[in-house]
Amino acid sequence: MRTLVEFARRLRVPRRRFRRIGAVPALVAATVLAAAVAGLAWWGHHRTEQRDAAVRQALATAPAAAKAIFSYDYRTFDDSIANGRTFATGAFAQEYAQTTAALKETAAKQQAVVAAEVSATGVVTASADRVELLVYLNQYRRNVNTAGEKVDQNRVVLTLVPIDGEWKVSRATAI
Question: What CA–CA distance (Å, rounded) separates 31 from 40?
Fold first, then answer.
């Protein structure tokens, strides 16, 4: 209190004015401000943890999803496609069904076997409910028209979303 009085004397403000104002409103305002700052910091940290958990889960799912979606064997084509469908959702699931239905006859005629392997993944964007991953995908293919095995090196952006606690591919974009 003494420093306030000294400060008031220097400013030539009457001493009794400081006594009327009091310290309680200033203390309440400081407490509310500190609580708001702490709440915002907690919320930011909480959202960051949710995003990081989503990234970890999507990164764990992506290799198996990419392998299932981008691989097939003409001898077990329906099983290969059924496995890929378990990783797809939404409009992408419909697109995947149409694409693979058109591919079935060609795969059988050419006795095509395509085995996809993920060599690397990286995060493009991430939130708690959507993760985009850049997937480096090698497809090893054999058929009656090729001698030996050919390797196609592809780059695909997979968009994964949580559906009933599991991460599913909602979009696949070749780049």
Answer: 14
pLDDT in tens, 107-134: 999 999 999 999 999 999 999 999 999 9
| CA-based torsion, 118, 122, 124, 128: positive or negative | positive
Whether residue 8 contacts residue 17, with contact meaning beta carbons closer than 8 Å, is answered with: yes
Cβ burial, residue 89 (10 Å; 0-12/13-18/19+): buried
| Contact assessment for residue 158 and residue 133, using Cβ atoms and an 8 Å cutoff | yes
The CATH topology of domain 36-174 is Nuclear Transport Factor 2; Chain: A, (3.10.450)
Query: What one-letter code names the amino acid at 130?
Result: R
Task: Report phi then psi at 113, rounded to 5.
Answer: -130, 120
End-to-end CA distance of the chain: 69
**CB contact at 8 A, 100 and 74:** no
Buried b / exposed e along 44-55 (16+ C-beta atoms within 10 A): eeeeeeebeebb
Residues 3-12: contacts with CB within 8 Å, 24+ apart? none
Q: Is the pTM of this model over 0.90?
A: no
Q: Please report, for the chain, how many H helices and E strands are present, in that order.
A: 5, 5
Give the span between the Cα atoms of 155 and 134, in whole angstroms: 7
